[in-house]
Amino acid sequence: MSRALFDEMRRRMEHFRRSEQKVARFVLRNPEEVIHMRIVDLATEAKVSEPTVVRFCRALGCGGFQDFKLRLAQMLASGSQFAQFSMNDSDSVAEFSHSIFDSTVGTLLSVRDRMDIESLSKAINALAMANRVEFYGFGASGAVAFDAQHKFFRLQISTSAYADPHMQNMSAATLKEGDVVVAISQTGRTRALVDSVRMARDAEATVIGLCPSGSPLAAEVTLPLYIDVHEDTEIYTPMSSRVAHLVLIDVLAVGVAKTRGPKLAEQLKAVKRSLNPLRFPESE
């Protein structure tokens, strides 16, 4: 079994009752312990009633607590033990730091396993053939857009990044066929970004979307690359989807570099040499 059980818990987190959320968070933090617990033990640790545990299990499509434990054990046996980040105020530095790393690793593996390779190949080809590439994003996704621009301008591609709706609209209005927009969003529901994407499509540009499936943005782009990360909304929750976006940008950049061939490799070496005068020499 894959990480489907954890993914389902993450997806349903905000729809669970508050008491059921307590169960979900305890399971996500302590999956190895839960498979050895009785229902009364889990209820006690999560500070809920036994009927709440049963209701939680059935909400996930399980026949009951024993069926839930069986599915959980199968998932752990398959090596899919990376849990969603969830933290108590009493957690130590070691506990919450390990949880953050495990959660991020789990997110990356989940995104990798679900990636549509055909869509990824089309996106790489579109970027490699583009006359101009523009990256759009807001907030944390804006930071990813600027990181992407930093990577792609070294690939001999005319590229820019915008995290302002006015600049995105003006950029979209000047696009034409053969240009590419990469729209980045963790939710896929930012109205201004969707509006800019529509303008880019009207200008006959190709739009690649790094966004959740089923989102308004996914419905508007030419080539969607789905990143479905169901993150908890607790105040301490890190945005592991942002890391997934950064890694996917790396994949696209490497794909474009490989497509463009040996001449680009020489250019990249020249760029690296240009930085040598700005650095202290390595100590012997």
From TrEMBL:
Gene3D superfamilies: Glucose-6-phosphate isomerase like protein, domain 1, Winged helix-like DNA-binding domain superfamily/Winged helix DNA-binding domain. Transmembrane segments: none annotated. Pfam families: HTH_6, SIS. Residues 123-262 form the SIS domain. CDD domains: SIS_RpiR. It comes from the Bacteria. Residues 3-79 form the HTH rpiR-type domain. Keywords: DNA-binding, Transcription, Transcription regulation. PANTHER family: GLUCOKINASE, HTH-TYPE TRANSCRIPTIONAL REGULATOR HEXR-RELATED. This is Transcriptional regulator HexR. It comes from Modicisalibacter luteus.
